[in-house]
User: Fold this.
Amino acid sequence: MEKDVEAPPRVDGGLKGYEALAILGLTRKEAELYLSLLQLGEASAHTLMRLLNIQQPHLYSLLTNLKKKGFIGWRHGRPKLYYVKNPAHVMEEKIESIMASLDILKNTLKEIYTNSRRYREQPAVEVIREPRNIFKLIKSVISRTSHELCILMSSNYMVRLVDDVVEKAGSGVRVYAITFPDLRHGLVNAFMEGGVRELRSNSLGRFMLVASDCTQTIYIPRSTLSSGERQNYAYFFTGVEMPAFFTHRFYSEWCRSNQIFSQAVRLENKLFSHRMFVYELTRLRSRGDSGIMVRVSGVDTRSGSELTVRGWVEDVFAEDSDTVYFTVRTPEGKRYSVGGYDAVTEDIEAENIVIESITPPRQSSELLDIA
Assistant:
């Protein structure tokens, strides 16, 4: 017959202790039992029932679970004694198991993420009515831009946005602006002094547009913000597909517009939209820079898997606004053609593009020969 053993005070593992054991797969009751047994060293079922004030069937269920999970063992005898295994060894086994599970989870999630890349951010469209609401939204989208802002706006509204646009340009955002049908007084100097990358104009704007970081776009019919219109509305798109589509439309208008001024291209570790990056490439190459090192992250158009390449830009193709891509050669000598969103014929559908370095022409030739 088992002797009565004076049970130690009931263990309070504390919230963090229970949470830590929960990470290792223990329920709250299992954690309480484990910590009590850890303090006792070993104990019989009778002692544990008395200490934890639980019924025998419940206790045996908890003990069985702890043994299956590798935390305890038992010695046969009269009575049977339960003991904890060396916590250090248990932790090592659990860590190995968790790491193996995380590797499996990582690969599984990566596959799901790749296969559903077009739906990473649920696309949405909203119709905005009334000029004051549209103008408020335009200012809000501009303020949230982090890397690149493309804005096509009538001149009477562009002058009202000067402060907002200049503020973003001053913070390092690349701003490409098109205005129509004319240039308002002071706009050119304000944009040039404020750091806007380039300003263009044309006499017949087909629509108005604000494209922010290729993730948010406001599309506005040209007549919407004109006085006297009964129906005033704009479309606000978020997600991937429509903002990318309208950034391409902006590029088409960009090619049709007349340059008013252009600031020098600067080396910057900021993301580019594909079309405007190709435009900057043509500018760099026109001034003689050929050693342009870039990092491109996107999707392999053949396998659908994620891909990141780093190398020198070799060729740029931008003969028209619809067929625009460039090629990259890696230090290992591999060549990739890089297209924009929804690319089909190119090797990579680019999502992120960063210029890492620009090497003077003579040095870049040497580097390319070595690669």
In short: Residues 124-262 form a domain with the Endonuclease; Chain A fold (CATH 3.30.870.10). The longest strand covers residues 306-317. The CA atoms of residues 122 and 239 lie 6 Å apart. The mean pLDDT is 83.
